[in-house]
């Protein structure tokens, strides 16, 4: 049977709303790849006739205007150059230092998170205390809010405006999605993000995982200290971001179980992983000619994401050396220093039509840092990967692909041309990688509704019904002790102990009486 | 905004398969209302071009042939009359005895379950040890199995044939669905079936709920003792039904969160509640005339399910008396004794077109026993209910509707015309019942894919991909102690205690040294 026989017609192609059905949606995205993930949903909602208002900072990396929407910007106390400089410095540090142990990687991640958090907090203050803007949003009378809670300004604004919120997210730090949604994450088989564990953990890994889960509320408190303070000031009551997040109507989770390990979800969590992998377009003529140039050997696509297009010269040389020794051609998004004797089978570009290239039948391998967008594009198009994680959730993403036998992973800190060559030859020549990837790809693409349509549907659902109260579990009304039934366990334990004591005492009493009467008899 | 704007075109209307895409599906249903729930899926799969083979006992209550399928029957050692007699006796006992306390209700339920279990075990032996039939099924080389695990013969046959299984179920006894699927059911807010609790529980209720959850594995062992023995004999190895069930590829859960309390689900659990509520047909002319006869007062629909169409005379009289005093007309599925002075606003029928009647704009109330089919039909059509639970999960179903403010519940054991009248007037005249029901109905009907299409999609998915291995959590490979991290907690506790001991000893040592040196100094 052919796969995907039952795929539905995308909603996107089907309907537009009449004015009476259209609503007003406030959108507060997060910059960078997060915005790339959210943009198609926002544009589709606008296309369907809703009044979609996107609020973004004046200065951003990827965030900007979008089709079919109104964009409102607010001033921020930093320039684009300053922001980019911060990120470049962080990336530079990662690429030039030997961050090898897992602990170093986590520490490294915390540093980047702090940097992002700095930007988030500055945005937060600039937006929330911009009276004119806030008044404007209040007057708009929105039906709902769509936000990426990675930056909590949308979270707080939704609470202030008392409108139901849809959160679109991927791998929030400190596991705040599980905490706020009350979604069980059994530490025995649900590896925490940034542990780089798989679903099958050793005793030691399970121990670390449990400690990590236990410490997460503390990590969240640290992460959101400044946001909590700002939220309290803005809402004029004691407030915390995590508490506000617990009132989210819908969580649009950018994950798919062809990639993510199976684990419990709450009914208000909707999986929309793989939205970015859209229908490919044909390649430009020069690209088409280049990729066809190596005949049956095919070609390799290589990018390290939107943030990293340069490499330290020595490291870059290792890549060039490896590429020189393969029969495939290579398309590499690279703007760094090029050695004089760069091999001719390598084409360097400032920007790659990544999805279109991966969809080409001659794409043999994909060298990637393991960001979710690229990962789903590779998965969708069935291209085996060589993965070189840099920071954030990339290390975890890589584990998930490696354990499924569709990728090899390398460490950027000690990469050599030999290692790269070995990994590339393995994923290209060992047919099992391609076969497993094709099976995984078929599973990933075989779904009753396209992720974009699901995201649109549930956002509109929240607009239509003023929330999704019926999906909210009663767990939110319990405290920690009650949720874990610790009071009940204590009570039952007490009952058991009392019962045993009474039984023992009774036995003792009976035994003594028996002894006494038998003693009496003896004496008599 | 109008509700349901985004409802998709049903798959059913869209596609049929080409012969190369069609597969072979074995279906093993359970009798009674269970079969009514499964039949549309089976027929749709047949219509789409698959070879669907339904295996049923020669003798059944509701189970029988279906469109677009092959039906195979096997002989059983009982007659239809014997089977019906058993059930009639049970129902008679319920209706004629005062089963009032919750404990009595549970006991009553266990008795009915034992009766059903007797039938199941007899079917099981008749089918599994029918060599000719088993050989025939083996030769068929099915791609997958669709079964209702309420009767475990499909479960065991799927294991024997080594084909992936799709389970379609509603409220399995002893919570075997949660146990076998490793789905977390926090006892603090997920009320166990047959407790008749809601999601908000008192301390006492939480205690009972926890004890119930703890005892469930034992209850399952009791329920499946004979099936386990037969399975071991048939498979020629030590086998248990619960263990086999843990390998289910997909669980099609006949629930919807407009009705069920929000709680965690596993990714291989697909909710398909409300499948029975199909598009209504216009009423026959005489019925249409009858229901229009009371003008704006409208009419009441009254059935106690497919198994109960009679009532003890005294009880029936209470109903007739109540109906005499309302301005509505009443349509009642009733075949019992009719008093001479039966009120004229009551029409008694052997069978009611329940869904078509509930969809009529003049339907004002629905008197029902709270079976899932009727319940979803009432919910879909937005008709407030007076609910009179009889047995099984009906008591729990009723609680779910009452707590949402869309129904009143009555006890069949002490029902009087006054009580019935009070409840009927309440749900008809107090507008809040209708308003809440309309909101709940809108939420229930507003979904991205119709439940029937979802059931068809996931069954075909399992046929296409030979299972759904990617949705299977690693929890299945852990034992109870590991799953609950008890070994890790013990280890961490030991580390903590050791750490504290070492710290104390060190302090003690230092303190002593200090004391000794100061004593020495003093002495000196």
TrEMBL record, chains A, B:
- Say if the entry is tagged with keyword Amino-acid biosynthesis: no
Documented EC number(s): 2.4.1.17
Query: Is the Glycoprotein keyword given for this protein?
Result: yes
A single GO cellular-component term on record:
endoplasmic reticulum membrane
Sorted alphabetically, which keywords does the UniProt record give? Endoplasmic reticulum, Glycoprotein, Glycosyltransferase, Membrane, Signal, Transferase, Transmembrane, Transmembrane helix
Membrane topology designation: Single-pass membrane protein
Q: What class of enzyme is it?
A: transferase
Q: Where in the cell is it found?
A: Endoplasmic reticulum membrane; Membrane
- A family per Pfam: UDPGT
GO-annotated molecular function: glucuronosyltransferase activity
- The record's principal subcellular location, in a coarse class, is endoplasmic reticulum
Q: Which residues cross the membrane?
A: 488-511
**Top-rank lineage group of the source organism:** Eukaryota
The residues forming the signal peptide are: 1-22
Q: Which reaction does it catalyse?
A: glucuronate acceptor + UDP-alpha-D-glucuronate = acceptor beta-D-glucuronoside + UDP + H(+)
Q: Which family does it belong to?
A: Belongs to the UDP-glycosyltransferase family.
Could you tell me which PANTHER family the record lists for this protein?
A: EG:EG0003.4 PROTEIN-RELATED (PTHR48043), UDP GLUCURONOSYLTRANSFERASE FAMILY 1 MEMBER A1 (PTHR48043:SF161)
Return the protein name. UDP-glucuronosyltransferase
């Amino acid at each position: 049977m052919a796969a995907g026989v039952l795929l539905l017609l995308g909603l996107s192609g089907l309907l537009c709303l009449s004015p009476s059905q259209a609503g007003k949606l406030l959108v507060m995205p997060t910059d960078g790849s997060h915005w790339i993930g959210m943009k198609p949903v926002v544009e589709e909602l606008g296309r369907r006739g809703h009044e979609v208002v996107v609020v973004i900072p004046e200065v951003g990396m990827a965030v900007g205007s979008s089709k079919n929407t109104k964009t409102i910007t607010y001033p921020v106390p930093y320039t684009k150059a300053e922001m980019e400089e911060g990120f470049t410095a962080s990336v530079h540090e990662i690429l030039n230092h030997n961050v090898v142990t897992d602990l170093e990687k986590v520490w490294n991640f915390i540093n980047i998170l702090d940097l992002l958090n700095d930007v988030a907090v500055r945005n937060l203050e600039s937006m929330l205390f911009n009276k004119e803007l806030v008044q404007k949003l209040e007057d708009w009378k929105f039906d709902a809010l769509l936000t990426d809670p990675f930056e909590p300004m949308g979270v707080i604004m939704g609470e202030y405006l008392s409108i139901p919120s849809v959160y679109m997210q991927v791998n929030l730090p400190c596991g705040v999605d599980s905490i706020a949604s009350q979604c069980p994450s059994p530490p025995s088989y649900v590896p925490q993000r940034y542990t780089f564990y798989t679903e099958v953990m050793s005793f030691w890994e399970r121990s670390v995982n449990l400690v990590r889960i236990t410490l997460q509320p503390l990590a969240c408190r640290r992460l959101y200290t400044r946001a909590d303070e700002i939220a309290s000031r803005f809402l004029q009551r004691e407030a915390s971001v995590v508490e506000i997040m617990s009132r989210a109507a819908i969580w649009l989770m950018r994950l798919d179980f062809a990639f993510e390990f199976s684990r419990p979800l709450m009914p208000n969590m909707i999986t929309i992983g793989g939205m970015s992998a859209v229908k490919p377009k044909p390649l430009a003529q020069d690209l088409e000619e280049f990729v066809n140039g190596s005949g049956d050997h095919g070609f390799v696509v290589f990018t390290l994401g939107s943030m990293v297009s340069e490499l330290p010269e020595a490291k870059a040389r290792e890549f060039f050396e490896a590429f020189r020794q393969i029969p495939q051609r290579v398309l590499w998004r690279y703007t760094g220093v090029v050695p004089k004797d760069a091999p001719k089978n390598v084409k360097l570009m400032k920007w790659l039509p990544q999805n279109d290239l991966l969809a080409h039948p001659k794409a043999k391998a994909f060298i990637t840092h393991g960001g979710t967008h690229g990962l789903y594009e590779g998965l969708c198009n069935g291209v085996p990967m060589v993965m070189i994680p840099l920071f954030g959730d990339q290390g975890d993403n890589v584990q998930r692909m490696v354990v499924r036998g569709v990728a090899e992973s390398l460490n950027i800190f000690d990469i050599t041309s030999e290692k790269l060559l070995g990994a590339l030859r393995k994923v290209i020549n060992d047919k099992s990688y391609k076969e497993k990837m094709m099976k995984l790809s078929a599973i990933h693409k075989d779904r009753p509704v396209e992720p974009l349509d699901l995201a649109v549907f549930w956002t509109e659902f929240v607009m239509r019904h003023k929330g999704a109260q019926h999906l909210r579990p009663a767990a939110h009304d319990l405290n920690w002790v009650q949720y874990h039934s610790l009071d009940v366990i204590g009570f039952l334990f007490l009952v058991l102990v009392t019962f045993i004591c009474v039984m023992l005492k009774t036995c003792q009493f009976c035994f003594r009486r028996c002894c006494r009467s038998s003693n009496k008899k003896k004496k008599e």
